[in-house]
Amino acid sequence: MKNYIKHHEWQIIEEGFDPHLHRVSESLFSIGNGRMGQRANFEEEYSGEMHQGSYVAGVYYPDKTRVGWWKNGYPEYFAKVLNAPNWIGIRVQINGQSLDLAKCKVENFRRVLDMKQGVLHRTFVATLPDGKRVAVDASRFCSMHNGEIGAIRYAITPLNFSAAATLVLDVDADVVNKDSNYDEKFWNEVSQQADSSLVMVTAETRKTLFHVTTGMTWQLEQGGKKMDVSPKVISRNKYAGHELAVSLRENEPLVIVKYAAVLSSENHPKATLEQAARQQLEGARAQGFDNLLKAHAAVWAHKWEECDITIDGDVAAQQGIRFNIFQLMQTYTGDDERLNIGPKGFTGEKYGGSTYWDTEAYCLPFYLGTSDPKVARNLLVYRYKHLQRAIENAGKLGFTNGAALYPMVTMNGEECHNEWEITFEEIHRNGAIAYAIFDYIRYTGDEAYLAEYGLEVLIGISRFWAQRVNWSADRKKFVMLGVTGPNEYENNVNNNWYTNTIAVWTLGYTLYAIDYVKRNHGGNFNLIKTKVHLQDDELKQWDRIASNMYFPEDKQRGVFLQQDGFLDKELLTVNDLKREDRPLNQKWSWDRILRSCFIKQADVLQGLYFFEENFDRDTIKRNFDFYEPMTVHESSLSPCVHVILASVLGYKEKAYEMYLRTARLDLDDYNNDTEDGCHITSMAGTWMSLVKGFGGMRVRNGQLHFHPYLPDQWQSYSFRLEFRGRVVKVNVAKSGTRVVLESGQPLEVVLNGQSVPLAVASS
Ligand code: BGC
């Protein structure tokens, strides 16, 4: 755990330069706009420890996998979101010395991420080896207004000298992924363009053949006046830049504005990429930094109006929640159904930037509550578009008749994960995809989604479950053998309660959906029925399975068992662990972890969270009291589910402890891994913790319900929800809760069990 980020309501602040923290800060101070993103690398050269990272949404590389023992059904590759051409470079040479913070004395270093405007600022004073001192003031952003544009304003002021200097402003496509399995480079050059106003490099990803054109142009100002400097073009393979000879004058800022355009063949025909990039660059330069920034900041202002959460009385908590919202909003903007949310977003390489069940189970509620419904819908359509691949994926494992198994990890619908106990067995992910359809419809009321896209996905998933279970003659029940539940510290178990529960729920929901579509969208139903060859016998079988499934439980304790045989374990609690045992996944052998009772993340409790309404409070309490003490929360996805259930049970202290853990997970580097990137998907869990946990928000029968409480540590908090064309604001304070309709048609909400009619106040 670290504690170097200064607390501030709207800013993430680092003061003083500690090279040991630089990689953590590079993750924390990342910026993006849904189309591209960028770790907080320095513009100038830096020869110290760092992790260069620029990312372009949807552009990936199928890296050949490494496995010890190949198993049938393994994917051939692991998709990686690529470290993309670097557009931020501004290299400064003074008197033959490079401005390189690893080689200079650094003072007054300050790095600030302004979340309100979405801008990264950095200031410092550096003393070069020969004693020359320069002050630098740099700002940059990836435009939320124009997703293909990034801009940097870099002011350099000599403090004790005047001298000639050389600047190199460049685009570098000769980049590597740190996680490359075979130390390969993933880009080839296609072409370059350079003239006195701009340079562009078009690079192609090997194998996947995406083209990305990255270009840059610039403006210079000195003493408040525009400067004309004729650049020397520098060019080598995969690299192009402008070298500028300038004179630095004591105490006079030289301001470099660098505009970058990053365009991919995902959004433009390859043949017109360069032309489009040129237009973008010329447009950006014509608008200028300030106007670009204004348009960018206006988008953020609008976003914050829709989704801000305020917390009074606890700046650390306020900063935490805004940081989580900020990162989510700059990772996925929801206007492109081909994109999704990687667990690290644009902040690092880990997890390959691919899609996990995290999206459906954790991120969807955030986008439902904070954005236009089309954003969440696009996340669902993404999976609809991958249905055929999910059917092929199941086919590779021997499933037939249109059974669909969605991948554990994917970029384009194909499975990328290759550890048998997860790839083949962590199949509960399929249930989360079905649940997300239900969750979306419950929130938005858009039941027609079933007829359009949802039903086909549900049928594919139900077919999978129906083939994945088997009849146990011994138990006279259906059972599901050889699975891994959400708790990945158990593998290859039989009858994971959560997986059995979500499988049975899916079968039931699919039967409901079939009936609904048949009755309300008969035409669509007939088309789907014919398309997927749906047979009445199948439906009867699904019903039989749903009514005769086996669920492990311990009647004496009144708890569901995580899996068969769970009670054979030595039942310890986390308090029995020594400090030096944690985190278990770094300190213990896998064998020891598997035999222990310790739980990585919510498993039975994940089921109680999803299907809370099917269980009474005592059941939730018994299970929470049994499982939470064994849970080490070594997945970032774990604490939020515990906040929500602890809140249901009135365990306020526990809820708050878990809340802090999720809200400041990265800012305080709880798991000592933020240098790999931020935990973007679990950030949505922070939002859920506050809105569903403390705020007690639920949607029941098409109505918003709230059952809020105020953590003792806070004076008040407020959040906004987009709900069926309205914006509802909830304020929870010591004096009570106020629910206000800010826009949209009147509606009735339920507050602490009482109906409250709401209408927009007339001004
Ligand atoms: C968790 C998974 C999750 C993945 C990506 C793992 O540590 O156990 O549930 O999908 O991380 O966030």
What does this molecule look like?
- The protein has 763 residues and is of the alpha+beta class.
- It has a domain at 11-65 and 73-307: Distorted Sandwich (Beta-galactosidase, Chain A, domain 5), CATH 2.70.98.
- The strands form eight sheets. Strands 1, 9, 10, 11, 12, 14, 15, 16, 17 and 20 form a ten-stranded antiparallel sheet that branches. Strands 8-7-13-19-18 form a five-stranded antiparallel sheet, with no helix packed on it.
- Helix 8 packs antiparallel against helix 9, helix 10 (497-520) crosses helix 11 and helix 15 (604-610) crosses helix 17 (638-648).
- The model has no long low-confidence stretch (mean pLDDT 96).
- Residues 343, 351, 356-358, 486, 488, 600-601, 635, 637, 681 line the site of beta-D-glucopyranose.
Second-tier CATH architecture of the domain at 11-65 and 73-307: Distorted Sandwich
Q: Main beta sheet: strand number and arrangement? A: 10 strands, antiparallel
Small molecules bound in the structure, each named once: beta-D-glucopyranose
Beta-strand residue percentage: 25-35%
CATH homologous group name of the domain at 11-65 and 73-307 = Glycoside hydrolase, family 65, N-terminal domain
Q: Which regions are unreliable across 5 or more consecutive residues at pLDDT < 50?
A: none
* CATH C-level label of the domain at 11-65 and 73-307: Mainly Beta
In quaternary terms, these chains amount to single chain
What is CATH's topology name of the domain at 11-65 and 73-307? Beta-galactosidase, Chain A, domain 5
Number of strands: 32
Structural class: alpha+beta
Mean pLDDT metric:
96
Distinct helical segment count: 19
Q: N-to-C terminal Cα separation, in Å?
A: 49 Å
